[in-house]
Amino acid sequence: MARTRSSSSIRWRYLNPAYYLKRPKRLALLFMAFVFVSFFVWDRQTLVREHEEELSKLKEEMDRLQNELGELRHEGGVPVKKMNTTTKRTDVTKMDGLATDPIEDQRREKVKDAMIHAWTSYEKYAWGHDELQPQSKNGVDSFGGLGATLIDSLDTLYIMGLDEQFQRAREWVANSLDFNKNYDASVFETTIRVVGGLLSAYDLSGDNVFLEKAKDIADRLLPAWDTPSGIPYNIINLAHGNAHNPGWTGGDSILADSGTEQLEFIALTQRTGEAKYQQKVENVILELKKNFPADGLLPIYINPHRGTPSHSTITFGAMGDSFYEYLLKVWIQGNRTAEVKHYREMWETSMKGLLSLVRRTAPSSFTYISEKIGNSLIDKMDELACFAPGMIALGSSGYGPGDSTKFLNLAEELAWTCYNFYQSTPTKLAGENYFFHSGQDMTVGTSWNILRPETVESLFYLWRLTGNKTYQDWGWNIFQAFEKNSRVEAGYVGLKDVSTLSIILKSARVNTGVKDNMMQSFFLAETLKYLYLLFSPPSVISLDEWVFNTEAHPLKIVSRGGNSKPNIRLRGFITRPKKINKIEVDDHSQRAVTTALWCNFLVFSLKFGVWLFTSSHVMLAEVVHSVADFANQALLLYGLRSSKRAPDALHPYGYSKERFVWSLISAVGIFCLGSGATIVNGVQNLWTSQPPGNIMYAALVIGGSFIIEGASLAVAVHAVRKGAAAEGMKVRDYVWRGHDPTSVAVMTEDGAAVTGLLIAAGSLVAVNLTGNPIYDPIGSIIVGNLLGVVAIFLIQRNRHALIGRAIDDHDMKRVLEFLKNDPVVDSVYDCKSEVIGPGFFRFKAEIDFNGAILFQDAAKEKDETEMLKVMSFYGEEVVTALGSEVDRLEKEIQEIVPGIRHVDIEAHNPIIPPP
Ligand code: DMJ
């Protein structure tokens, strides 16, 4: 029995901590094994996590496809509308909070990347020319050499925050743009791209150079309206001013070309105070109104001498489209007042006509807008007509409740059809037009795709007006198809045939040249802008404050006949996604941690070697110290990496706090292993130790380690200084209260390491001088205590960071001071802040707004008649003003303390509800 007990206790002795404490070399080997196993597990885990992320993305995609498939099956194998047509009719144009979804952020960035690619290619190969030919890498002047792409891109660059590119383009406009060209220009194209682009750049930037240029080109276009009826000729020579119509129209003017200058020319009058522009274009509508048909549908040709329609096609596609669009938009631009009522009336009449053109396909019941010649309907729809769902949705709110719902439903049905123009082809890009033959749903007619924007334009409006995110997903799918098929090395090109996959053709060895060689300027002006806005908060170019011309150039809505300047400077409304000035702490911290990691590895190896030779207790303490530091820094690095993960649905504020968790774990590790084991070893050997041998080796290694650890300490101190500067704090304050304890952790550990080496050196010198070995374990105990102090300090630092303390007092005071002094703020209640990551915070306050000042702002610079209108719309005005004030306060608070990422300002209800 006794034998059995003793053999089993021998077997289990390895699990007894006392076994290792008596055998320090084995303890060190155990530590090493622990470190290497941890590393291995960590490495595997990182891999597994990356795979899991990939898998979850694939799973989401699979779920989506399965849903679609389920619905397809349910409806008998044909594509049907996925979304609920009774979507909540919420106007989300003021709900900023809805649009801070991380997926939207990622998508928006991808669209911005596409713009950068398109613009950089244009800058490189076609600078100053109208359009870029990406395959042959050269520029062409398809609009007379007016820099069409450059001007078309100005506002997109501005909205996307591409400031340097915008500035370079602005310099070209100021110094090189010359309109004195002996060139027969299209009045329509020049107006929507050049006048519209310049005015939009002016409204966004306030830079007069754009207004001057807009006036210059508009003055050159004006003689086109000098016709007997006032219906303009569609072509004019920019240098000489002689105007005419294209030969192929039989002398007629084109409806869209004649009725799509109103927004730009009215805006020009509002900004210059010169009436002539507005008069010319408004007269066109009055002239057309005289012969306006009962169904509001005008054929595409108009006689400029008599002002009467000529027998021709009626369409919402090519040559008709934007005439209808501008009827609605001039009404919106004119603040929906009595003065512009006739535009709305004409538009509503045309919408009745549109209803008479609406048909549905069999078997899938796609809704489409047919065309008409005489009394015959033609089952054809252009992709160009896909702007109509957006227009109808935009105009639907002007109807009473019943019609409003009816038109919004129609808009959603048409958008579904347009989306299927894309989805039904192998390339997932739409052709130019579609035919609807009985029993066949849709068939591509003209099969090219030239990067047109109309469908994404409609998706943008529908998302803004319904809040239904399905439209964002559709837009994203279309964007991805452009990326896949149209992106080439030097920009984006169209496809000659969307219904043929190049991969199939390649395998059949047919060289068809599927891609074309043109990057249309509207791809940068419209397609990419609408896609970018589709993934931006609704306050970015709010539909309450801006109206888009037909080339997607936003024009600021100003009071008609009132201000000669847009009120862009009144309150600094936000026109871009909020820019976050991120405090760049990560790079310094990461550098400090990585340096410390390698230095510790080196030092550990040296110390370990020397300890094997000397068997010194203080050297063992130093080995343990380095192992603890190494493990700690590996954990910090892991924490830093994990905390950089992008926010997701489960963690909408991101993972930035994760580094505190790992930092805390490592601090506890130092406390238990580093400090605990070293002290215990020292205490155990206090009375039994022998003088260590080979002290010279120990001295050498201590010296070498001192230099290495010293270098690592210098990097960490530098990181701490940088961190303090980035947060505007003194180094001392940063050490105790800074928002990123990582670099502080490395600095304290390295500091302790350097001090530990001095202690080790001191104790060995003491042993050598006195011959008393007790100084060796005493050194070990001191090093252990030092580690304990460091660990307790780090535990405290990370504990505070994890609990989520408030922002610094002085920052909070600055924000409160700002709010207190703002005229629109009466009182501030319930102010709270929380650190949500290293260097960024959430701030929340309830504000009692000053109603009188709000109202004065809304009514500012309006005369008495205007005042009446203001009064009648005061509810709307005040709500808009309140929303804008909240935006402004949030923006300014973020400027005061840049790390504040989330600002929640709420309106305070001053009436205390009864208990
Ligand atoms: C753009 O130039 C304008 O949107 C215009 O109204 C019609 N077509 C092109 C883009 O497709």
Automatic annotation (TrEMBL):
<keyword id="KW-0333">Golgi apparatus</keyword>
<feature type="transmembrane region" description="Helical">
    <location>
        <begin position="695"/>
        <end position="720"/>
    </location>
</feature>
<keyword id="KW-0460">Magnesium</keyword>
<feature type="active site">
    <location>
        <position position="454"/>
    </location>
</feature>
<keyword id="KW-0479">Metal-binding</keyword>
<feature type="transmembrane region" description="Helical">
    <location>
        <begin position="777"/>
        <end position="795"/>
    </location>
</feature>
<feature type="active site" description="Proton donor">
    <location>
        <position position="432"/>
    </location>
</feature>
<keyword id="KW-0378">Hydrolase</keyword>
<keyword id="KW-0735">Signal-anchor</keyword>
<keyword id="KW-0464">Manganese</keyword>
<comment type="function">
    <text>Class I alpha-mannosidase essential for early N-glycan processing. Progressively trims alpha-1,2-linked mannose residues. Produces Man(5)GlcNAc(2) from Man(8)GlcNAc(2), but only Man(6)GlcNAc(2) from Man(9)GlcNAc(2). Has difficulty acting on the terminal mannose of the b-branch. Involved in root development and cell wall biosynthesis.</text>
</comment>
<comment type="pathway">
    <text>Protein modification; protein glycosylation.</text>
</comment>
<feature type="transmembrane region" description="Helical">
    <location>
        <begin position="619"/>
        <end position="640"/>
    </location>
</feature>
<feature type="coiled-coil region">
    <location>
        <begin position="48"/>
        <end position="75"/>
    </location>
</feature>
<dbReference type="GO" id="GO:0005783">
    <property type="term" value="C:endoplasmic reticulum"/>
</dbReference>
<dbReference type="GO" id="GO:0008324">
    <property type="term" value="F:monoatomic cation transmembrane transporter activity"/>
</dbReference>
<feature type="binding site">
    <location>
        <position position="550"/>
    </location>
    <ligand>
        <name>Ca(2+)</name>
    </ligand>
</feature>
<keyword id="KW-0325">Glycoprotein</keyword>
<feature type="transmembrane region" description="Helical">
    <location>
        <begin position="660"/>
        <end position="683"/>
    </location>
</feature>
<dbReference type="InterPro" id="IPR002524">
    <property type="entry name" value="Cation_efflux"/>
</dbReference>
<dbReference type="GO" id="GO:0005975">
    <property type="term" value="P:carbohydrate metabolic process"/>
</dbReference>
<keyword id="KW-1133">Transmembrane helix</keyword>
<dbReference type="Pfam" id="PF01532">
    <property type="entry name" value="Glyco_hydro_47"/>
</dbReference>
<dbReference type="InterPro" id="IPR036026">
    <property type="entry name" value="Seven-hairpin_glycosidases"/>
</dbReference>
<dbReference type="InterPro" id="IPR012341">
    <property type="entry name" value="6hp_glycosidase-like_sf"/>
</dbReference>
<dbReference type="InterPro" id="IPR001382">
    <property type="entry name" value="Glyco_hydro_47"/>
</dbReference>
<feature type="transmembrane region" description="Helical">
    <location>
        <begin position="752"/>
        <end position="771"/>
    </location>
</feature>
<comment type="similarity">
    <text>Belongs to the glycosyl hydrolase 47 family.</text>
</comment>
<feature type="active site" description="Proton donor">
    <location>
        <position position="189"/>
    </location>
</feature>
<dbReference type="GO" id="GO:0000139">
    <property type="term" value="C:Golgi membrane"/>
</dbReference>
<feature type="active site">
    <location>
        <position position="321"/>
    </location>
</feature>
<keyword id="KW-0106">Calcium</keyword>
<dbReference type="InterPro" id="IPR058533">
    <property type="entry name" value="Cation_efflux_TM"/>
</dbReference>
<dbReference type="InterPro" id="IPR027469">
    <property type="entry name" value="Cation_efflux_TMD_sf"/>
</dbReference>
<protein>
    <recommendedName>
        <fullName>alpha-1,2-Mannosidase</fullName>
        <ecNumber>3.2.1.-</ecNumber>
    </recommendedName>
</protein>
<keyword id="KW-0326">Glycosidase</keyword>
<feature type="domain" description="Cation efflux protein transmembrane">
    <location>
        <begin position="594"/>
        <end position="802"/>
    </location>
</feature>
<feature type="disulfide bond">
    <location>
        <begin position="386"/>
        <end position="418"/>
    </location>
</feature>
<dbReference type="Pfam" id="PF01545">
    <property type="entry name" value="Cation_efflux"/>
</dbReference>
<dbReference type="GO" id="GO:0005509">
    <property type="term" value="F:calcium ion binding"/>
</dbReference>
<keyword id="KW-0472">Membrane</keyword>
<keyword id="KW-0175">Coiled coil</keyword>
